Amino acid sequence: MGVVVPIGEARDPSQSIKPLLDLVATDMAGINRLILDKAISDVELIPQLAHHLIDSGGKRLRPMLTIAAAKLVGYDGDSHIRVAAAVEFMHTATLLHDDVVDESDERRGKKAARILWGNQASVLVGDFLLGQAFRMLVDVGSLAVLRILSNAAAVIAEGEVMQLAAAKNLATTEDEYLAIIDAKTAALFSGAAESGGAIAARPIEELTGLKSYGRNLGIAFQLIDDALDYAGDTKNLGKEIGDDFREGKVTLPVILAYRRGNASERTFWTRVISEGDIQEGDLEHAIALMHQHDAIETTIARARSYGTIARDALAIFNDCSEKQAMQDVIAFCIDRAH
Amino acid sequence: MGVVVPIGEARDPSQSIKPLLDLVATDMAGINRLILDKAISDVELIPQLAHHLIDSGGKRLRPMLTIAAAKLVGYDGDSHIRVAAAVEFMHTATLLHDDVVDESDERRGKKAARILWGNQASVLVGDFLLGQAFRMLVDVGSLAVLRILSNAAAVIAEGEVMQLAAAKNLATTEDEYLAIIDAKTAALFSGAAESGGAIAARPIEELTGLKSYGRNLGIAFQLIDDALDYAGDTKNLGKEIGDDFREGKVTLPVILAYRRGNASERTFWTRVISEGDIQEGDLEHAIALMHQHDAIETTIARARSYGTIARDALAIFNDCSEKQAMQDVIAFCIDRAH
Q: pLDDT (tens digit, 0 to 9) for every residue of chain A, 338 residues total?
């Protein structure tokens, strides 16, 4: 049932993330140790639930950005490891709460923690991981990094609330949708990258460059995620095609197909998205309408455009293998899931 | 239906909190302004939901402790206002998540936010308020205070998870129960008081004194809360008698009545608490068994004992009106709800 759309050129995305993986390999081992260490608690349920998610094979893209940014600016201390682990904990906490809010049954191809341990434990362990993240950041002792990431924590929550308020609402504009993903997804990408520079106390123009890189990469990443929900391949994606559709999420492909559709198509979108009345064949029809109106293609084109902004944001840095790896990962985010 | 048990001497508790209220009155006005200011967001749902709780007439006991502690140690800056507001935001975030976890219908005599706006919004607005709390603390810029309160955030969540794991489990010991309330309730009382000293960069023995005061006051406060759930007066309490009973919470009155009861009584407790099979008259029977075994009286005696520890923790400070107000509020916490 998965309709696989070739996204961009037929590049192998595993090749475009390889330079970043190589660059951060040693540090990531340290981060993984720290993550295991800080997910420990005398309260048994906490490590059980935390490990379910931590071990589930996420890409750890966000902490990688922190490490890469620290290396790009020539940071020679070891605090970036703790900052990166805190970033991953913030992300994990968000996933736990997201699954409760979205009532998701799966996450990364495994049963969602809330299905195994309940919504209550997911809420509370998320809170614990967020608390641990701030504890680690306090240990690092950089107020600049604490400012960036406490700001991200509040903005992410704001974005999630915006998304909740926009749920099932087909009147959502592309601008409103962009504001949502800027907050709920791009804020942590942005904070992750900027923190890597802030820990080295780099000048403001470098921090701004890293922040812009992370932000635009995050927007591109989320746009592709939204496209893949209608055009991806379930096996590679680790989530079911049509999850967003079933949850009535108003993402860009839906917004475009709705706005570009005729009256009878809009009646269809209202029934399935706003009223949640989904019948056999509706997902396939939705995907067909999206292709008819170039909704997926436009979404990917937008992602490419944000990817270009991310690339240009790094222009102020001298050419080096770190910069190259950070640019290559933009292609990975856009071409992934082939 | 409320069985009102006289707790301690028939003192008027409003008299024992009056010195503290007078002491902090000016600063609390500043805190209230700051709370209103920081609960603002372009995302409409956030101030709506935050105000529902913020305006609902909580006592703001925790931020008062921060202010009182700062005054006790002679702090002459104005950062204690922001720290106190952050403490109240942390508390509000916890209440929002608690109501979701406990599936509560009411909070402070009003419909719970989750009933009005849903569990999803309650989880996310709680996350937002926690993020705002850390932002405010970063603005203050004291790593000592950030350490105390990020630690409290993680410990509170741990305590909540412990409580969840102990739910309906009558094998919970008094020690285990104390460890739970030490974490879920006393950690924020403790952090609130210690922060008031830390913002003034006071010596370690004063910080330890404030920490111990807050911790033991918090334990006493929670023990009385648990006693009131079986012996309070619904009107004054702002919650229904028997809420804990209906949720199968294993609090100290239950632990004691169960342990002191005979085989047939234990069968009763197992049915109502562990199996959640509650019938007409069961709450009254539970209360009668508690009185028969002095379970409420013992719980209150324990609270008094922690109150004494809290009082003694302040011994290192010179006698002054601030110290007197902080000691008087111990009596308020123990004698309240008459």
A: 334 444 444 457 778 899 999 999 999 999 999 998 998 888 888 988 888 877 777 889 999 999 999 999 999 999 999 999 999 999 999 999 998 888 888 877 788 888 888 889 999 999 999 999 999 999 999 999 999 999 999 999 999 999 998 989 999 999 999 999 999 999 999 999 999 999 999 999 999 999 999 999 999 999 999 999 998 665 555 556 898 999 899 999 999 999 999 999 999 999 999 999 999 999 999 999 999 999 999 999 999 999 999 999 999 999 999 999 999 999 999 987 44
8 Å CB contact of A150 and B141: no
Domain boundaries, chain B: 13-333
The Cα–Cα gap between B116 and A332 comes to: 43
Using the beta-carbon criterion (under 8 Å), do A43 and B130 form an inter-chain contact? no
SS3 B106: strand
Stretch 44-63 of chain A: residues touching chain B, C-beta under 8 Å:
44-46
For residue B67, give the nearest of B132, B21, B134, B133 by alpha carbon. Answer: B21
Question: What fold does the segment set B13-333 form as a domain?
Answer: Farnesyl Diphosphate Synthase (1.10.600)
Please name the residues between 198 and 257 in chain B that touch chain A, using a CB distance below 8 Å: none
| Contact assessment for residue B125 and residue B96, using Cβ atoms and an 8 Å cutoff | yes
User: Alpha-carbon torsion A198, A204, A208, A210, what sign?
Assistant: negative
Which of A257, A238, A249 shows the shortest CA–CA distance to A278? Answer: A249
Which residue does chain B place closest to A95, by CA atoms? B124
Closest residue to A151, CB basis, from B43, B119, B135: B135
Q: In whole angstroms, how far apart are CA B324 and each of A110, A205, B317, B320? A: 57, 53, 10, 6
In three-state secondary structure terms, B153 is helix
- Rounded to two decimals, the ipTM of the complex is 0.91
Would you state the torsion angle of the CA atoms of residues A52, A53, A54, A59, taken in this order, to the nearest 10 degrees? 140
**CA–CA separation, B233 vs B238, rounded Å?**
9
Q: Does B144 touch chain A (CB under 8 A)?
A: no
DSSP A199: T
CATH numeric code, A13-335: 1.10.600.10
Contact between chains at B165 and A45 (C-beta distance less than 8 A): yes
On the CB side of B15, CA atoms within 13 Å amount to: 4
- First-to-last C-alpha distance (Å) of chain B: 16
Residue numbers of A between 5 and 44 with CB closer than 8 Å to B: 41-44
Subunit contact A127:B160, Cβ cutoff 8 A: yes
Q: Do B41 and A158 touch (CB under 8 A)?
A: yes
